[in-house]
Amino acid sequence: MKNQQNKEILEQELERLESELKTVGRANPKNPEDWEADTTSVDIDRADDNEVADKMESFGENTAIVAQLEIRHSEVKRALERIEEGTYGNCTVCGKEIEKERLVANPAAATCVEHMK
């Protein structure tokens, strides 16, 4: 039952992450598992320097946001894969059961407290 509850939590988080990613980026057409920052088109020939600078700043911010969201997206997907494989809740380093408190705080946790990064 615990795995089913965590699976639902993880699936909801995955949906939320994908929605957030779509606001600042897009799936890479060459690799759908990869996300890239959205580049709002700017007509450089007609744009003034301030507009170009604003667009570049926005792109830089989006790149940082996409990077963070993409990391969490991957963690959640891997946790869902572990549920399907039957290895969810076990530390990927030592194989021992991950502490319940850790899984409550972070349902995508892959390691026990001892092996946290």
From TrEMBL:
Domain Zinc finger DksA/TraR C4-type residue range list: 86-114
InterPro entries per the UniProt record, alphabetical: Znf_DskA_TraR (IPR000962)
GTP-binding found in the keyword field: no
GO molecular function: zinc ion binding
SUPFAM superfamilies the UniProt entry points to: Glucocorticoid receptor-like (DNA-binding domain)
PANTHER family: DNAK SUPPRESSOR PROTEIN, RNA POLYMERASE-BINDING TRANSCRIPTION FACTOR DKSA-RELATED
Mapped zinc finger ranges (dksA C4-type): 91-115
UniProt-recorded name of the protein: Zinc finger DksA/TraR C4-type domain-containing protein
Lineage of origin: Bacteria, Candidatus Tayloriibacteriota
UniProt keyword annotation of Zinc-finger present: yes
UniProt keyword terms in alphabetical order: Metal-binding, Zinc, Zinc-finger
Source species of the chain: Candidatus Taylorbacteria bacterium RIFCSPLOWO2_12_FULL_43_20
Chain segments carrying region Disordered: 23-46
